[in-house]
């Protein structure tokens, strides 16, 4: 029971909204979600149309600047991004400081934060030109940084960007090529990769985006803000769910074991949840999951591995859960992470790379939201209040008397 007089005594009345389920923290023109209809729009364009007809760098332009680019604008934007794909050579020393078995998310959180120590000409948040350069730098360098984290974790030499390739092909090559050996990027995989990037590019005020905005509201430099977003994304209730989901599907192992796991998910004494199910906003279906499912079928079919056991478990689990009153009543549907892991695994990525790939894709969303916030003349430092339930004032007791 909330004692209203106590609240007044604490300096006024404010809303108490744990998890911010009913609080809008900002206004925005970037991304729209209708959770009831299962609709996701970037700057007004439906996600399924963008996934089918556009490509990631065009979507980046759209998110950053508000409109689809003309042909000339797209060429210019792509060349600006391409010019910045290399990272400073001294950064290699930074990578080598990590343990060989470090999680790539730990590495990229550190490396992105450390970029502010390397690019002094793009840390002044009051200078629009510096903000723009920081944005382009991060979109360009995140694939390189993620690929380096991957190569480091598998003990292989880094592969430098090859800038006559498109964004997704370049990333796949940096991950899977071995220096001095021929490597041809499979166009089917490059297209699937690009679609994963597009589907994850922005998602309005989720936990990591709100973290970026909150960090940015204090005037922190852009690299520090994005590093904060990456750290937040890592949690299994957020971006870490794609790794957790594939690990769960593997643990289930066979369709015969599904009922046991479904029963555990429904048992309130068991903390187990079906990873990849449920969403704070989507209470009908996640439109990204729909596209991702089609993509998983397509990629596995084209690679000739459609009898993949993990995919069979995923499909059967989805079928059972969608008919089970527990999941139906609570409106728990597969989310974007449910199928993305299957595609990434088919491409050859270990589960530890799933969340870094999400971070890479979401970087443009974080930056767009950060830029929008800084451009708002009414912008204030984020400063939530609390409902204090601790002791009232009391006198200090000397240690010998306690
Ligand atoms: N499995 C079983 N039960 C679940 C699940 C699940 N995956 N998700 C929610 N529930 C149940 C809860 O136990 C709760 O039941 P109750 O009302 O009887 O107490 C009810 O559904 C509501 O759950 P909340 O946790 O209150 O819902 P919230 O909106 O806060 O959480 C979240 C959403 C975090 C995504 C949650 O559904 C979850 O943990 N899912 C699994 C993790 C996951 O897939 N995360 C990825 C989200 S998408 C993204 O970040 C890209």
UniProtKB/TrEMBL annotation:
<keyword id="KW-0808">Transferase</keyword>
<dbReference type="Pfam" id="PF00285">
    <property type="entry name" value="Citrate_synt"/>
</dbReference>
<dbReference type="InterPro" id="IPR024176">
    <property type="entry name" value="Citrate_synthase_bac-typ"/>
</dbReference>
<dbReference type="InterPro" id="IPR019810">
    <property type="entry name" value="Citrate_synthase_AS"/>
</dbReference>
<dbReference type="GO" id="GO:0005737">
    <property type="term" value="C:cytoplasm"/>
</dbReference>
<dbReference type="InterPro" id="IPR036969">
    <property type="entry name" value="Citrate_synthase_sf"/>
</dbReference>
<dbReference type="GO" id="GO:0006099">
    <property type="term" value="P:tricarboxylic acid cycle"/>
</dbReference>
<dbReference type="InterPro" id="IPR010953">
    <property type="entry name" value="Citrate_synthase_typ-I"/>
</dbReference>
<feature type="active site">
    <location>
        <position position="279"/>
    </location>
</feature>
<keyword id="KW-0012">Acyltransferase</keyword>
<dbReference type="GO" id="GO:0036440">
    <property type="term" value="F:citrate synthase activity"/>
</dbReference>
<keyword id="KW-0816">Tricarboxylic acid cycle</keyword>
<comment type="pathway">
    <text>Carbohydrate metabolism; tricarboxylic acid cycle; isocitrate from oxaloacetate: step 1/2.</text>
</comment>
<dbReference type="InterPro" id="IPR016143">
    <property type="entry name" value="Citrate_synth-like_sm_a-sub"/>
</dbReference>
<feature type="active site">
    <location>
        <position position="337"/>
    </location>
</feature>
<dbReference type="InterPro" id="IPR002020">
    <property type="entry name" value="Citrate_synthase"/>
</dbReference>
<protein>
    <recommendedName>
        <fullName>Citrate synthase</fullName>
    </recommendedName>
</protein>
<comment type="similarity">
    <text>Belongs to the citrate synthase family.</text>
</comment>
<dbReference type="InterPro" id="IPR016142">
    <property type="entry name" value="Citrate_synth-like_lrg_a-sub"/>
</dbReference>
